[in-house]
Write a structure and sequence with these properties.
Layout (H helix, E strand, L loop, with lengths): L1 H20 L16 E2 L5 E2 L18 H6 L2 H4 L1 H7 L11 H7 L7 H28 L1
Antiparallel strand pairs: 1-2
Helix pairs in contact: 1-6
Length: about 140
């Protein structure tokens, strides 16, 4: 129960940090196929796929794209995520060469990266809680 509560808190904190870290949404048009945005049971949204002829690579431009996708940013901030996090939001299909390259990245599995991020956020929370406690004493 304590672990679940800690994870919930860290996800909330990550969502808050993510909102602060993201630049203002780009309002330029992005070519899309027709289709409505619908949400599913997962944290990802079923978004219209980018036009395959748009020439954009199937990559994530930001290092936090996978984390943002997990907390629902693909649907909550679709314009930004379509531009910056195409791969994590499932907006495109990586080419075969890209998929083969991904197999080499097994040195640091996703769970380990998530654990490191959770530890970082927990440390940040402890620092904040300490500051808050000191501020209340004043």
């Amino acid at each position: 129960a304590e672990v679940a509560e800690r994870r919930r808190h860290i996800r909330t904190q990550l969502a808050h940090e993510t909102q602060q870290a993201q630049p203002v949404e780009d309002t330029s048009s992005v070519p899309l196929t027709t289709g409505a945005v619908t949400t599913t049971g997962s944290s990802r949204a079923t978004l219209p796929t980018a036009n395959p002829s748009d020439g954009q690579p199937c990559i994530d431009k930001q290092t936090l794209c996978a984390a943002w996708a997990k907390i629902g940013e693909c649907s909550q901030n679709a314009k930004y995520m379509l531009k910056e996090c195409r791969k994590s939001c499932g907006l495109c299909t990586p080419e075969v060469a890209e998929e083969e390259d991904e197999g080499d990245d097994e040195d640091e599995p996703e769970a380990e990266v998530d654990a490191q991020e959770m530890d970082r956020l927990a440390l940040q929370k402890r620092k904040y809680d300490g500051l808050l406690t000191r501020a209340r004493r004043i």
